[in-house]
Amino acid sequence: MPETYQGSSTPTQAVVAADGEPFTLDKPLAALQLIAQLEPRMTVVTVSGIADNQACATSLRQVKASGLADAASHVTLEAIRHAYPVEGLFKAITLTKADLLILVARRRSFLGTMFHRSVTNRLLRTCHIPMLVLPAIDG
């Protein structure tokens, strides 16, 4: 939760950051129950330096398969073209007027961990809306 959050008391618009890679949520029950209580509008967002419709469609399928979208009142898909994931997610937050960012955090190889940890850490330090970070298992 940001130190100076000024938004609504209950999130109504969620952005789910998805990258098109397969994932399975690790112990998702509490998170899925929270999302079910919120019933937010949900936008699945992919950020890429190139237009990649396949990754967008795959991301949407994977978010739906994980159960994250089950309790959403409405689900949409947004492709953000940006070279930097964090800035791309901030752009998506602004475009969708999101008041919750849902981030899937995976275990990775050493180099992948360094990259994704830096993205996650940067988001945790600088994101101006509440975040729900969900641990996941690749594949």
TrEMBL record:
UniProt cross-references to SUPFAM superfamilies, sorted A to Z: Adenine nucleotide alpha hydrolases-like
Domain UspA residue range list: 52-135
Gene3D superfamilies listed in its UniProt record: HUPs
Taxonomic superkingdom: Bacteria
InterPro entries (alphabetical): Rossmann-like_a/b/a_fold, UspA
Protein known as: Universal stress protein
Annotated organism of origin: Hymenobacter qilianensis
